[in-house]
Give the backbone structure.
Amino acid sequence: MYDSVTKFLIETYSADYASWLLGRPITMTKLKPSELSLEPIRADSIIFLESEDIILHIESQT
């Protein structure tokens, strides 16, 4: 149950989560709801930020 709620919140408010975690406004985000194809890497969704100097990885486990 919590996993679905957490995924929904992060997918719906991806820019807000990124801004909150990074402590600065994020102007552009793109959410790709897909799994990565390489094993053993898996992700429910990936948020891409328009930034040259930052990578934000959010892992949620419930």
Summary: Helices lie at 2-12, 14-22. The mean pLDDT is 71. Residues 2-49 form one domain. The beta strands are 29-32, 46-49.
